[in-house]
Write a structure and sequence with these properties.
It contains 17 helices and no strands. The chain is globular and about 65 Å long. It is an all-alpha fold.
């Protein structure tokens, strides 16, 4: 990139971009400010890194390959940016470049080994995308030890244990989760699968997917549909919006090799998917606040759903 801005001009641009991000101004306006800053700043400068990181976040969902271009510029100058490597992992996963995604999350974990979400995403990719549960289990275990009450983390760990033949351990984990959510249909289904010895064996999601090709794909339970419908209706979503979310949920359930959970992060992600499909201008931060979940939890779940739909 060619540097064309003075220090004062770049500082003003960055302040305007930061304020636009904080105020959730229209996406096109924010992107224009960030692109101007990225173009005028010297590559590797704090201003360029700021602009490239935020542009990558904005582009991740609609154009993951363009997001990856900005992340490459960021990581050339800031190779120790763990969030940059994690975003690169998500962008590569959304493009079905799963081995590259795993490499990026490995770098993120190496820089920030205490981050449970990096371990969870790395483990999930190794288990589901690459069918390597033996390599995934240590990462999922570490994430679970840090987040033992988080349904997605516990379910991912238990499912991986099942594929490794460690069904009794998986049952114990799911049982603890069910004490808090005794009528949770997806957790009950996962527990049943584990109690039956995790058929068709402990050979990973690819084998499970093959077995499902010979029988009807799983369908979203009426209970889970009711939970999602109730949560979105309570927020005042229009019937068309709710229908879009339920369509996405049905596709996600159908494409998943094991149990999936209609918990708050999932409902928030489905709400966000519906809004985007209907052309609404919303941010993940805004949706997360409405559902009382963290933006990171929504983003992680949204990426997991996208990954599953791409493979489904």
């Amino acid at each position: 990139m060619t540097a064309a801005g003075t220090g004062d001009e770049l500082n003003t641009l960055r302040i305007r971009a930061e304020q636009a991000l904080q105020r959730d101004l229209p996406k096109d306006h924010v992107r224009g400010l960030l692109e101007a800053l990225a173009t005028r700043a010297v590559e590797g400068s704090p201003e360029a890194c700021f602009a490239n990181r935020h542009l990558a976040e904005m582009l991740l969902e609609e154009s993951p390959w363009r997001a990856a271009l900005h992340l490459r510029r960021l990581l050339r100058s800031c190779p120790e940016d763990d969030a940059g490597h994690a975003l690169m992992g998500l962008s590569q996963a959304l493009q079905a470049n799963y081995r590259m995604a795993v490499s990026s999350f490995r770098r993120a974990v190496a820089i920030s080994p205490a981050n449970p979400w990096y371990h969870h995403n790395l483990g999930h990719l190794l288990d589901v995308a690459l069918s390597r549960p033996q390599d995934a289990v240590a990462h999922l275990q570490r994430a679970f030890r840090t987040q033992p009450s988080q349904e997605e983390v516990g379910a991912s760990y238990a499912q991986c244990l099942g594929r490794l033949g460690r069904c009794a351990e998986g049952v114990e984990i799911v049982g603890a989760l069910l004490q808090r959510h005794p009528r949770h249909a997806e957790l009950l289904a996962l527990k049943s699968w584990l109690e039956r010895g995790a058929p068709p064996g402990a050979r990973g999601p690819s084998s499970l997917a093959k077995s499902q090709a010979h029988r009807p794909r799983p369908e979203a339970s009426e209970e889970s549909r009711g939970v999602i419908r109730g949560a979105l209706s309570k927020l005042g979503r229009a019937p068309s919006h709710v229908d879009e979310a339920l369509t996405a949920w049905a596709s996600y359930v159908s494409a998943s090799p094991g149990a999936v959970t209609a918990d708050r992060p999932t409902i928030a992600a489905l709400d966000y998917i519906a809004a985007r499909r209907l052309g609404q201008r919303v941010t993940q931060k805004h949706i997360a606040l409405e559902h009382d979940v963290t933006p990171n939890a929504l983003s992680t779940r949204y990426s997991k759903i996208r990954l599953r739909l791409l493979k489904g």
